[in-house]
Amino acid sequence: MTRTFFVGGNFKMNGTLDSIKGIVENLNQAQLDPKTEVVISPPFPYLLWAKEHLKAPTVSVSAQNVYDRDAGAFTGEVCVSQLKDVGAEWVILGHSERRHVLKESDEFIASKTKYALDKGLKVIFCIGETIDERKADQTMAVNQRQLDAVISKLDKADWEKVVIAYEPVWAIGTGLAATPEDAQSVHAEIRAYIAKKVDQSVADKVRILYGGSVNGKNAPTFNDKKDIDGYLVGGASLKPEFIDIINSRQ
Asked: Of the listed 37, 129, 167, 187, which one is catalytic?
């Protein structure tokens, strides 16, 4: 099964209008791999500007969060209709910083995922273990628990609009990265689990990204692994090397 290579750039709470302009201009001027789908996720204030100024047909924009309710008295939150209104097509949900720093539960993340999908956004759904969980040999137990919450809410058709990002928490922003072999092993187990709990055809089609200190230098080392379908990139997405990651399969 051929799955379209996917590279997401999660800017997190970084950037100014000037720096976002620079990133968008770099993307517009670069010769991007036409076979790679690219999604960038700037902070909320810059979503509309990014959408209006991106010229590359393979690049779309994503929000970094969404609430699981329609517009209303929810101070500080955003709803799907507002994100779609400024051109967002995707949203990142379940990122470890939302889980561990902001204490979002598996159930809440699953609720937001289903809501976003039902309202017309596509979802980059993040899972992954902490260093203590890894040392305790709990990697797949954690991934399965996080997946189970969303599996219980999604219909089979929903999975066509979901990309999974495996992001080992111990590798995010630390400069450490899983070896390509370790990442492939986990990705294969995730795909097998989806086949078991959802459907084999869903498992064959769903894209599973690796995230965790991916950069221009190490990205090509993952490219021959059959179950690694791209990357969710953090800090490197703010730098010119993001282009190298996008083009790492050329």
From this structure: 167
Catalytic, out of 95, 97, 129, 187: 95
> In Å, how far are 92, 100, 136, 203, 207 from 103, measured between CA atoms?
16, 5, 21, 29, 26
Contact of 127 with 96, CB cutoff 8 Å? no
Alpha-carbon dihedral sign for residues 48, 54, 60, 61: negative
Mean pLDDT, the chain, rounded, equals: 96
Catalytic-residue membership of 167: yes
Residue 80 and residue 89: Cα distance in Å, rounded? 10
C-alpha to C-alpha distance for 139 and 117, rounded to whole angstroms: 27
Neighbour-count burial for 210-245, b at 16+ CB within 10 Å, e otherwise = bbbbbbbebbeebeebebbbbbbbbbbbbeebbbbb
pTM of the model: 0.96
pLDDT tens, residue by residue, 83-130: 999 999 999 999 999 999 999 999 999 999 999 999 999 999 999 999
